[in-house]
């Protein structure tokens, strides 16, 4: 069974990172299980060489050889196992350092896309050169280093997209598939929940139907045809996923999580969570 280390990153000065907005560093060669990165910290991208397993949003992804990886902080994630010694480079940056919407819309950071881009020898050499130059700029005293770092990040992202195009390019067969895609996109945009005093706006199929200007029966038929699940089931699944993430990766009280997810009373949330997961929120948090 894979075990996740839950301590914070020991070498990362988060106060300094938040002030500067970015950090570039070489990854130490190690066979130890790396620390858990958490959920609401910073965007990350890196170049790694070795063998390891990443838990990204509950999906285990294996890296073998040299690869780029891109981490969205809103997706629960952790490096859970290293098989051989690994090394490479990493760049960590805040959402405000780059345009937040551009990051969220980028296929490399989008929920559901594969965040790992495998590289051949030629691609690995080119990317290694870019990260080395970026590290040199970071360690230097160039007056406009932040602007140059942004350019390097953008270049690496675009080169990665050129190597591995987005896997989920919308191709609408008919009106039903288009509406279903719009529903899914709107559903994902409700998350992650960042503030406990700003409850979820859209909770029911009727809410989404009104927002999309379609009849709720048409929405239900379209979503079921495309996803195989009802609109309510899709909404419930996403709310439960967010609830689990908040229980595991925040210090909010259960009552705060309940309100943030649109439940008027904590008891309603407790019953909802137990009905769909078989466990109470407090029990799940202790596991």
From TrEMBL:
<dbReference type="InterPro" id="IPR009057">
    <property type="entry name" value="Homeodomain-like_sf"/>
</dbReference>
<protein>
    <submittedName>
        <fullName>AraC family transcriptional regulator</fullName>
    </submittedName>
</protein>
<keyword id="KW-0804">Transcription</keyword>
<keyword id="KW-0238">DNA-binding</keyword>
<dbReference type="InterPro" id="IPR018060">
    <property type="entry name" value="HTH_AraC"/>
</dbReference>
<keyword id="KW-0805">Transcription regulation</keyword>
<dbReference type="InterPro" id="IPR020449">
    <property type="entry name" value="Tscrpt_reg_AraC-type_HTH"/>
</dbReference>
<dbReference type="Pfam" id="PF12833">
    <property type="entry name" value="HTH_18"/>
</dbReference>
<feature type="domain" description="HTH araC/xylS-type">
    <location>
        <begin position="181"/>
        <end position="287"/>
    </location>
</feature>
């Amino acid at each position: 069974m894979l075990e996740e280390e839950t301590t914070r990153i020991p070498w990362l000065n988060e106060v300094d990172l938040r002030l500067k907005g970015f950090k570039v560093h070489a990854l130490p060669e190690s066979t130890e299980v790396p620390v858990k990165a958490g959920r609401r910290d910073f965007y990350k991208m890196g170049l790694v060489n070795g063998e390891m397993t990443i838990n990204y949003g509950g999906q285990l992804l294996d890296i073998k050889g040299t690869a780029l990886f891109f981490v969205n902080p809103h997706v629960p994630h952790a490096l859970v196992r290293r098989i051989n010694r690994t090394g490479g480079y990493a760049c960590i940056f805040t959402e405000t350092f780059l345009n937040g919407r551009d990051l969220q819309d980028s296929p490399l950071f989008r929920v559901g896309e594969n965040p790992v881009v495998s590289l051949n020898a030629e691609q690995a050499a080119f990317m290694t050169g870019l990260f080395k130059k970026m590290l040199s700029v970071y360690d230097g005293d160039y007056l406009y280093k932040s602007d140059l770092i942004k350019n390097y990040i953008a270049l690496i992202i675009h080169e990665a997209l050129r190597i591995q195009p987005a896997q989920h390019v919308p191709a609408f067969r008919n009106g039903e598939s288009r509406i279903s895609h719009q529903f899914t996109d709107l559903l994902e945009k409700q998350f992650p929940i960042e503030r406990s005093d700003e409850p979820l706006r859209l909770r029911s199929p009727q809410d989404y139907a009104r927002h999309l200007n379609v009849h709720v029966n048409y929405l239900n038929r379209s979503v079921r045809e495309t996803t195989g699940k009802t609109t309510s089931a899709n909404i419930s699944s996403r709310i439960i996923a967010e609830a689990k993430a908040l229980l595991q990766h925040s210090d909010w009280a259960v009552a705060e999580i309940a309100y943030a997810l649109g439940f008027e009373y904590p008891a309603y949330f407790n019953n909802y969570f137990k009905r769909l997961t078989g466990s109470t929120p407090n029990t799940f948090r202790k596991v």
